Amino acid sequence: xxxxxxxxxxxxxxxxxxxxxxxxxxxxxxxxxxxxxxxxxxxxxxxxxxxxxxxxxxxxxxxxxxxxxxxxxxxxxxxxxxxxxxxxxxxxxxxxxxxxxxxxxxxxxxxxxxxxxxxxxxxxxxxxxxxxxxxxxxxxxxxxxxxxxxxxxxxxxxxxxxxxxxxxxxxxxxxxxxxxxxxxxxxxxxxxxxxxxxxxxxxxxxxxxxxxxxxxxxxxxxxxxxxxxxxxxxxxxxxxxxxxxxxxxxxxxxxxxxxxxxxxx
Length: 265
Fold this sequence. Notes:
Helices cover 39% and strands 19% of the residues. The longest helix is centred in the first third of the chain and has 17 residues, at 7-23. The chain is an alpha+beta fold. It has helices at 7-23, 26-34, 41-49, 68-81, 87-101, 104-107, 109-114, 223-239, 245-256; strands at residues 120-123, 139-141, 144-153, 160-166, 177-183, 188-193, 199-209, 215-216. The chain has nine helices and eight strands.
């Protein structure tokens, strides 16, 4: 098993570490935490210009990375500096689903995500989901979606939110879950700051109409894709704590997320 970084990844790590050491000191972070937005648009834009967001997407999606080591390198440095901007939510969770499932129009968002102009969030967790990815009570009936998504990280600062909803099956079935890409301007959200940084929102869906252009991926067949992006996100969270990254990474992520298997080499 070889954990040595390639030249390109070493350059990414060095560049990001220098940038954060210069731009993301304790005073700056505290000011961001105390702001109404809970993030810095200026920092976000600069991270995009440095290529940090692009490192989390494959070349086919307009980036230059997207593999396990790329995620680990980026998030280890973000964790070292205590960065609270919603990079995981935009790039790995919601962005990963758009890259995997989006039609031509939806995938057009990837360029603006990588460029720092667009932010996304994934609304999947619910008050009674108990962290089970397959438990979805939000439903669609007669073209209308109803339910409650809880603590959607990054939603208050997102332009679009991906919402999961059940179109068939029982509440705990893996089959029958669908995804929809919705503008945040159409949503009833109640925002709250999160301990440790960032913003989240509860989203209340009361018969919101769903149109064909909102659908992301196949009808009732997205569970495997949700597993994949959550495994990538788990990899990122592990990397935020460099001391435990190897143990936690191998205990969970690599078996579920094909992109992580390059670490076997």
